[in-house]
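[agent] plan:
  1. take the single chain provided in the ticket
  2. run structure prediction with default settings
  3. attach structure tokens to the ticket
  4. add a short note for the reviewer (M.T.)
[agent] executing step 1
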Amino acid sequence: MEKKLNKKKVVILIAIILILIITPTLGRYIYNSFRDMYLRSQNFSFSSNLLTTSNKTYRYSSWSGIDNFEIGLQLYSYKYVDELIQYAGQGLEYSIECTVDNENKAKCYITTDTQPQTSSPVKTATKTSHIPNSSNIENASIYLVPGDDLQVGDIIELTVIAKSVSPYVKTISATFRVEIVEPNVSLQIDDSVNSLYATLKLTNTKSTQTQVTLSYDPTVVFLDKLSEIYTKNSNNLILKTISGIEYISGITFTMLPEETQSIKFYKTDRTKDYTYKVGSSGQMIIKVEESN
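[agent] step 2 finished; step 3 output follows
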């Protein structure tokens, strides 16, 4: 009887091995599932709203290829028990990497909450950061920067991999396929150190009018109230209350076909330079959204 049971166990084991060999994807899924269960039993978890252990693929058809394209994601850690808090030190340490398939068409760089510094765009960018124990969450942004050979219709494949370093190792990833579409509004910011204001230059490249919404941090810059944009659209303001005081933090207006606008934004810190041009690694201090 015992020999029969042992034979059954051997048959079942062989069947499992064959399944894992024949279907490697299933094998990885089973392995990752069991590993996650084990790590959670150790009061550890490393996950994301977009990155997964199965390398999920996302598709975007919204990049004009003129300005930098941002993919925002969040990274989560499990709330540690006391022993792991002491072991982990300042929080869950991890590295995050982005890689583009064709550096002549686009490059990338990364920023995070705890590591907000920008860097020169490259084919493969890596940043080491950590998720604080106090919040168990960190925001990260992956930026695609257009290259000289980028054209409408191109599809850029971006791979993002994040790996926890301590107290346990776990890897999560995703692939983003970003298609280049015909741009509607081109933009740039002209500025220099000690300048009183930065100038946002917008051009509607469409043959039809388009609605544009500008939003910004009023503690960093504020819209010139003498500008035509403000005087003609003072009923379309976005307001924000900070410390009990109401500030203008955005405005919506219409641009005519092929119209160009130059809009002044006064700076609260003249020592800053907010220059932004296509292909630079700087972040836009003014968010521009357009709709038909």
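[agent] step 4 note for reviewer: The helical segments are 2-22, 24-41, 82-88, 228-232.
[agent] ticket updated
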